[in-house]
Amino acid sequence: MSFKKQDAEGTGVLMGWDGSSVEMGEKRSNEEELSKRQKKLKHGKLAQKRREQAAYEEEKLRKLPMQGAEAISEHFATVIRAQNPDLSAIELDEMYLKKSEFLGTEAFDGVRNLHEFPGFMARFSRAPRAIVLSMSNIRVADVYRSLGGSSQCVKLFAKNKLHEDVATVESVLGADKDKKDKKDKKDKDSKKKIKYFVATPTRLEKLLESTELFFEGKDKLDIILDASYLDSKKNSLLDSENTKVLCKVLRTMLDKKSSVKVLLY
């Protein structure tokens, strides 16, 4: 038989028949301490799992550009399904990027950084012109410098006004069409040397809505995805807030322009 009473300090004491006692306050304290340790251990395990998952996703993103066309196409299909959960299978099929629309670059064994970008382009991009898509304005500027600057590239991004970028595209691609006009021949010749349009997906989307020049002509066109770069938050072009826009502009270009191939760097 036992009973509980309050001592002089108000602490609960459990009294036994033989006069032994257990401090209830101390018991609760031990239980709370054990509970805290268990919670800390549980949270530590969850945090470790999250870190491991994040590291796995990061490594998967880094390796994707080195995969073949089939693996890349499957990745985009997964992304498109996740972004459009309410669409039917038929509607989704119209949005998918087919294996045949990609050109695998797994044979490239160099480090995929800014320094190696020109060598990669020289080896894999054989079209007269190429659109290079990067995830941010800052990255566009970095790629622009890496690929030769103003002698070979134009920057198309939100730091420019849209009408300025439209005029730039028209001056470059219009120079290809306007071969009979001898006026400003030197300027037109310099425009013809431009090979790369370096842009963000959002700016390219607006340009495709503003001009048809990207769709005209029978010349081949490559679209290079700057996919190896991860920002400080470990986001890539293929896994960022602009990925939905990226999928849209790729599908638009592939549908409206002949002889287009998509390559991942």
Automatic annotation (TrEMBL):
Pfam families: CMS1. GO terms for cellular component: 90S preribosome; nucleus. Residues 1-54 are annotated as: Disordered. Residues 37-48 have a biased composition (Basic residues). Residues 24-36 have a biased composition (Basic and acidic residues). Coiled coil: none annotated. PANTHER family: PROTEIN CMSS1. This is Protein CMS1.
